[in-house]
Amino acid sequence: MRSDPVASPAAAGAAPRHVAVIMDGNGRWARQRHRPRAAGHQAGVRAAREVVRVCRDRKVEVLTLFAFSQENWQRPANEVGLLMELFVRTLGREIESLHRNEVRIRFIGDHAPFPPRLRELMQKAEARTAGNGRLTLAIAAGYGGQWDILQAARAVCAAGEPFSAANLEARLNTFGLPHPDLLIRTGGERRISNFLIWQMAYAELYFTDTLWPDFREADFDAALAWYAGRDRRFGRVAEQA
Ligand code: IPE
Ligand code: IPE
Ligand code: MG
Asked: Is residue 233 part of a domain?
C-alpha cells in the first residue's frame, strides 16, 4: 500500500487550493495583429495581472504561473533578451501593489543563468512579500519539471537520506505548497511542456484554445466551473471519494 499521500489535494467538491497555468499563445496573438512577438508578451503581462487578482478574489491559495521554461532558453537571443527586460520592468513595477494586496511571491526554477539584476529583484520581491498570506504567487522562471526532480534527487543523495516521496518532496522547488489541483493551459496545445511533472500527478487538466493575452476573468471562471464538475477519485471508486 502506498503510504505517502498526494500532497494535500483540495477536498472533493471544494474549490482548487492550487491552480497552475501554462500561459501560452503570446506569439500567435501578436502575429494575428501583425505585431512583433514582444507585443504579445506585453499583452500577456496584463492577462497575468488579471488572473492574480481573480485568484485572490476567489480565495485560491496558490497560483503558479509558467513564465519561462528551461527550454525557452533556446529561443532566438533577441526574444530571450526582450523577455528578461520585460521581467525586470514588470517585477520592478508590480512588487509594491502585490505586497499591498497581501500576495506572497515565490520563484521556482534554475535562476543561475538569469541576469544578476533580475536575480536581485526576484530576491527582493520574495523578501518584501514573505509575510503575506492572502495568495501565494509562484512564478516558474527557468523552470523544468525534470530538472526539479533531478536536483531534488541529488539533494536527497547528498544528505545520505533514504529515497522516499517525502524526502524528495522536501527538496522540490515547490516544497511547502500543496500540489496543483487544476492545470490550465491556454493557446490550444495539449501538452505539459516539462512543467510540474511530479506535482501534477493528480491535477485536473484544462485546455483552452484562447490565446493567453485574451484570457480574462470569465475564462478563468469557466475553468473553475469545469473543475467543479470533475469527480476526483484519486484511484478510489466514486462512493469512497
Ligand atoms: C508563451 O507564449 C510565453 C512564453 C513561452 C514565454 P509563446 O511565446 O510560446 O507564444 P506562441 O506559442 O508562440 O504563440
Ligand atoms: C510553455 O510554452 C512554457 C511557458 C508558457 C513559459 P512553450 O510555448 O514554450 O511550449 P512548447 O515548447 O510549445 O511546448
Ligand atoms: Mg508557445
From this structure: no
Q: What is the pLDDT of residues 44-93, one digit of tens each?
A: 999 999 999 999 999 999 999 999 999 999 999 999 999 999 999 999 99
167 is catalytic: no
Domain count, the chain: 1
Integer Cα distance of 31 and 119 in angstroms: 31
Q: How far apart are CA 53 and CA 33, in angstroms?
A: 27
Q: Is 194 a catalytic residue?
A: no
Q: Which of 66, 71, 110, 185 to mutate to test the pocket of ligand 2 (most atoms within 8 A of CB)?
A: 71
The pTM assigned to this predicted structure is: 0.96
Q: Which range of residues forms the domain containing residue 142?
A: 18-228
> 23 in ligand 1 pocket by Cβ < 6 Å?
yes
Beta carbon of 109 within 6 Å of any ligand 1 atom = no
Does residue 101's CB lie within 6 angstroms of at least one atom of ligand 1?
A: no
Could you tell me if 169 and 201 are in contact, meaning their C-beta atoms sit under 8 angstroms apart? no
Is residue 239 a part of any domain in this protein? no
